[in-house]
Amino acid sequence: MKTQKNKKIKSADVRGQKGESWLYSDVVKEHFFNPRNFMHYDEEKKFKFNATGRVGSPACGDEMVLWLKIDPKTEKIKDCRWRTFGCGSAIASTSVMSEMVKEKGGMKLDDALKITPNDIMKRLGGLPDRKIHCSVLGDKALQAAINDYFRQTKQHKRIITAGAKVIDKDLNITDHDIEEAVLEGAHTIEDVQKRLKVGVAKPEAKEAIEELIRFYWEKYFS
Length: 222
Prior knowledge:
The protein is an alpha+beta fold and 222 residues long. It has helices spanning 26-33, 88-102, 109-112, 117-124, 132-152, 175-183, 189-196, 203-221, and strands spanning 12-15, 21-24, 51-56, 63-71, 76-85, 166-168, 173-174.
């Protein structure tokens, strides 16, 4: 099928299930139809990343997986790849965020952690109200990947725990960490330790983590 080159992309008026109008900007459509930095399955083993973030679940809605290549000397993000399972807004949000963190030779981690969902939406030219959560997922995936890097490099005090209940203060393990581990298939505390690349230092933390594992398994898989 032939397509016209250099044809200006017009705004799309898409109707939701209840008949509401969702207006997507040219930028959203461009990133949806031509996503940047997407991780193809055959590239994953070749890509030398040192941080991974995963948020959401295909069973519950959108899911985002983010891979980062971080320079340990400068703490700049030298490369960013991703895969998103979800709607056009989720794909566009992750795509534009991956460009943002790679600009000008790569963002430093502290600057990348300052990216907000509103920053992502501004770059996209806005999102429909019903799709704002997609930019929030992108922000969470980036934070999860940077937290993963901090864990791997044993910088536990730098792990971001805002909005989460800290279960192990020494290792900065939160209830959100346990939830994500369970969504990825963790059945036991050993599975969680392997997923988070940590040990569990305190007996009281171990008991709380086991309780959360049971809670999230019942919530998502009962």
